[in-house]
Amino acid sequence: MGTLKKIQNNCHKATFLIEKRLIGRITLREKIELWIHLLGCGICRTYQKQTIKISQMIRQLFASANSEKHLDDTFKKDMQDRIENELDKN
Amino acid sequence: MITKTQQLEPRNWVATHADYLYAYAIARINDEEQAKDLVQETFLAALQKVDKFEGKSSERTWLTAILKYKIIDVYRKKSSGLVVNADVQRAEQEQSDFFEPEYGHWNNEHAPKAFGIDYHDPLVNKEFNSILQKCMQKLPALWLSIFTMKHIDDQSTDVICSELKITQSNFWVIIHRTKLNLRACLQKNWI
Fold first, then answer.
1. Same domain as B56, residue B106
2. Partner of B104 for a Cys bridge, out of A10, A47, B48, B93, CB 3.0 to 4.6 A?
3. What is the ipTM of this complex?
4. B18-56 pLDDT, tens digit each
5. Element containing residue B173 per DSSP (H, E)
């Protein structure tokens, strides 16, 4: 199998390069290989769309989760007491 | 001491920062009891360091930085030891037949298919988010730690690798594997 055929068939490598490009850098050669692969592979194009979306959703999820969780009052009071105790020691 | 307490007000920490720090911790370690402990430990550790506070950052930023180190410690502990190997093995097993062994082409059964996230905005969809969270919880501790540090905290790859003691190439393999499992889990559970 020629190099071109190998690139066209290797979705494992293509998805790896997609992930690496998303948050890091890939070489020029890798960029070209990925471009060729995506040109002919609809499945990996779908993968790419989805993985970008998933990253966005995760960032969003964490940004919104921040305001929802609260500590209960008993625990807060205990912590307050411990802090006061420590401070009064000095 | 007098000049420092003008900048830090430990007696107000609980009221001002406890909920914020708790939410911060829980988003990153997903364990309510442990998150509570971490907040408490953060305050106590901070009390010991009051003298070292230089007033260069806000009180909240300073406390968050202390918490961050404690979270990384948790990651480290979770991702070393025998249990870990088992959970990594299980996760690797899950994706062992995603690709054809010979050239690495997608296996038909596991090939990505459009499953709804491509078309509409699922951000408003609570159900989708809860599936996403469940899928993340299924990831091995080390993978989730790396993934969280990268995506939520925007930590540099160098920092993550040195904190968690992994190589760069291992880092990229794990990022790839994490996404493969996460995406597959979403496709399987979101119909």
1. no
2. A10
3. 0.85
4. 999 998 898 888 788 999 999 999 999 999 998 888 888
5. helix B168-189
